[in-house]
Every structure is written in C-alpha cells, then in structure tokens.
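Shipment paperwork, digital attachment
Item: protein structure file
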Amino acid sequence: MYVSPAVRSIRDDPVEGESVTLLVEARDDADTDELTEALTDVGTVEAELEFETVRVSVSHERVGTVCELAGVATVQTENALATGADGAGEDVRFDDQ
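Attachment content:
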C-alpha cells in the first residue's frame, strides 16, 4: 500500500480537531463498494471517483484507521497532483484555485 508523505505526516502527528479530505484507491482485487462502506464508518464519503477511488473527509485522528482498512491500495490528500509515485507536488495549491 502507498501512503503519501502528507498523509503519513498527518497519521503520525494528527492535529486535534482538524480534518482532511483523502483520496482512497481500492486495490485491484478489492471490492470498492465494501471499501466505501468501511470508509463511511470512519468519516464522510463525499464521492466515488474514477479508478476505484473514494473521496472521504476524516478527522486527523482517524487517518491511521483509513490506512489500515482492508482493500486499500493508496491514500493521498485530495490535493495530490499526478506527478509520480514519490508524492512530489502533493498539497500544492495555486493562487487561482
């Protein structure tokens, strides 16, 4: 499973009372519906996206739980840019966004 650097940081040092929106991608052999149901128990599912990915908002304290769910392939913040598996560019916001 791939956990982006930004998500690892939040998981390892959560800020009480803060939340984050994550993109959680299911493994190829996982049931996306089951993953979505499990994520509903952890946070607020906002959308089911392409490529077996679910957008979910969770408290910082629950990020570790998301990372431990069965069937998870990747966990990134919603601001991740498609810049490769090293996570470079994640959480970059441009002024016009």
